[in-house]
Design a protein that fits this description.
mainly beta; four-stranded antiparallel beta sheet; 28 strands; WD repeat domain 82
Amino acid sequence: MKLTDNVLRSFRVAKVFRENSDKINCFDFSPNGETVISSSDDDSIVLYDCQEGKPKRTLYSKKYGVDLIRYTHAANTVVYSSNKIDDTIRYLSLHDNKYIRYFPGHTKRVVALSMSPVDDTFISGSLDKTIRLWDLRSPNCQGLMHLQGKPVCSFDPEGLIFAAGVNSEMVKLYDLRSFDKGPFATFKMQYDRTCEWTGLKFSNDGKLILISTNGGFIRLIDAFKGAVLHTFGGYNNSKAVTLEASFTPDSQFIMIGSEDGKIHVWNGESGMKVAVLDGKHTGPITCLQFNPKFMTFASACSNMFWNCLHLPDCVPVPAYFPCLTFIYSIPL
């Protein structure tokens, strides 16, 4: 089935999971689309089966915490950043729940993590104002760039270049083979003092770059010329929450959640909004990604659902249930 405006309008919630007791801070689909893995502020890592639509396994990172989880090229290994004790990145085998390698170096929280789509290289950006280049086979940093502000970064779909967003005002493109020589292209954007950049992604065809912000808009730019093609707004984000924006796999549509639990979808070519979907969330949708192979996408909220457990001779006890939702297309 080809994605069209009408198909996107037909998407409905099919599954809702409440496996976590705290915010779901990240999730990632496997390259084959068969599983999705989530990380949470409750220190849990939950693996879901996308075909059967159910949780498969839960692991924990109680000591170090877990954030920004990413699949590697092997379906049973992931890398993720830590949000406790230190800012080391960890390489984990899901098969036996053992660490394969540690990647120390950052001195403040890691805010960007991107795997190369073609090999064992990955990059990380931190509040220590550095971007580091790594290889899964070595604990040593393969490259280091000092920046002037908070970075966001991502690989292009061919793994030949990576982009770094710096100071919420410019995008720098680096050739992976000669990044130490500096960027081969720099695109300066209009600086907006009301918000900061929170994410950067390439489209699957490599022609577009999507810049997320913690304000009420996201920007789509030409990956070759740096020209702003569209600015998408009209969704709620009054509390400056970090909301994940994503492309559909065909690079034709752009999606983002909002603080009222709705999902907004635009046509990347025309710039027109084509759908506002009900994600069945009662709070901000902080994570949103489309499955790379199947006609489904997932969203996660940071809102805490209140479920009062009535105990004898006791006041109601609140239980917190953030949720992850699988949303499928209904054939027309």
